[in-house]
Specification:
The protein is built from two helices and five strands. It is an alpha+beta fold and 94 residues long. Strands 1, 2, 3, 4 and 5 form a five-stranded antiparallel beta sheet that branches.
């Protein structure tokens, strides 16, 4: 009887961890190839954005970031604003 309870608890714990941490593809964007992968606890954003600095040819911004809960619930536009602030893009528009 103890052995069955232990197995049931282990199975429930494993299933819960899988649900919380295994990522799935959320969306591919047409901004240069940005992809997002997410689970209930985090979001991985593979930034691949075409940016246009003033007076220059376009550049591609490429970076991979992990956003943990509660930031994983933000939209890609909100995360892009955070990314712009962290990288201090001056005069760059998407």
């Amino acid at each position: 009887m103890k052995n069955k309870k232990f197995i049931i608890i282990c199975v429930i714990a494993i299933v819960t961890l899988i649900i919380l941490f295994v990522p799935f593809v959320v969306h591919d964007y047409d901004d240069g190839g940005t992809k997002t992968y997410g689970s209930l606890t985090y979001k991985i954003v593979v930034w691949n954005v075409i940016i246009h600095p003033e007076g220059e040819d376009y550049q591609i911004y490429h970076k991979t970031n992990v956003y943990w809960f509660p930031n994983n619930l933000k939209s890609l536009d909100e995360l892009w604003k955070i990314e712009n602030l962290e990288c201090d893009f001056v005069g760059i528009t998407q």
